[in-house]
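Hi F.,

I've been meaning to write this up properly since the lab meeting, where we talked about keeping a consistent format for the predictions we share between groups. The idea is simple: the sequence comes first, exactly as it goes in, then the structure tokens exactly as they come out, then a line or two of notes. No screenshots and no reformatting. I'm using this chain as the first example so we have something concrete to point to.
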Amino acid sequence: MADGLHQVVVHRLEPGEIDEATAADLVSRPFVSDGIEARTAVGGRINFYSKSTGLFRANRSLVDDFNSVDDAITFACLDDFSQVRAGDLVGTTKIIPLAVSRQSVGEALRTISAAVPILVKPFIPHTATILSTISEGLAAKTIAKTVRTTTDRLLARNGEIISEVITDHSVDSLANALRSQTAIQRYRPHLIIVFGASAVADQNDVVPSAIRAAGGRVERIGMPVDPGNLAVLGSLRGTVVIGAPGCARSPAMNGLDFILDRVIAGEDVSRAAFARMGVGGLLNEIKDRTQRREDSGEHVNVADLRKIA
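Output, unedited:
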């Protein structure tokens, strides 16, 4: 042959079959939404991209049902609650063979159209107060580093720190500081992140006690995310109050990231929502933790234990 080709392999559509590009186009439509766009099919594949920076949500059971219709029709996406940026690839449909039955395409389309399969919840612009309590032994440079690290965390989520407050590590002092910060009128959603001089030990410790003393509510003490177990979630006058775990002074991913993702995306952060964070909650160890989770056989005094989060 003129172009050096000696053999051409083709697929002849059988009655009731749809070619891969058409099938991909049909089944991909329910995955597109205000926050997610699709690109033109190539080889039976259509990719989906986030249109904003925010929190990716996936309906796991619906996606599982879709992938169970026919081996030839597949969809893969990021894990639920993944943080994404505008332009990030979040999912892909792929028709495996060159053609697939029209009946399977119809069933897959009906299955995935039962509810919203995937979406991106944009991060809502937030302001924040960093409230640090101090006690003997806590260096000023530690507080400064904490503010820098938290500033970066918030900027990545469309948030910004607008005030920094330092107070004594006592219930009365912290309660007064919380009341003063929630009394200020804000023009955007606001949250308060408390970094205690020592980590929270129980419901009667300084941070949760101060939230209650200020007239607020404590939703949960402790979370099934490690590093980040010793977090506190509460509210005061409609403002979310987070008692940050000690490990949140590090830029490494920890429980505070889980909380900020959900709060700033407008997600549920109830006690029940915290309880569902365990699967996927085992994160990489932070090197400079006072006691790493695999350390054993060594004595650690109570003062050091209270720094572990």
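Notes:
The longest strand covers residues 159-168.
Confidence is low (pLDDT under 50) at residues 305-309.

If this format works for you, I'll send the rest the same way.

G.
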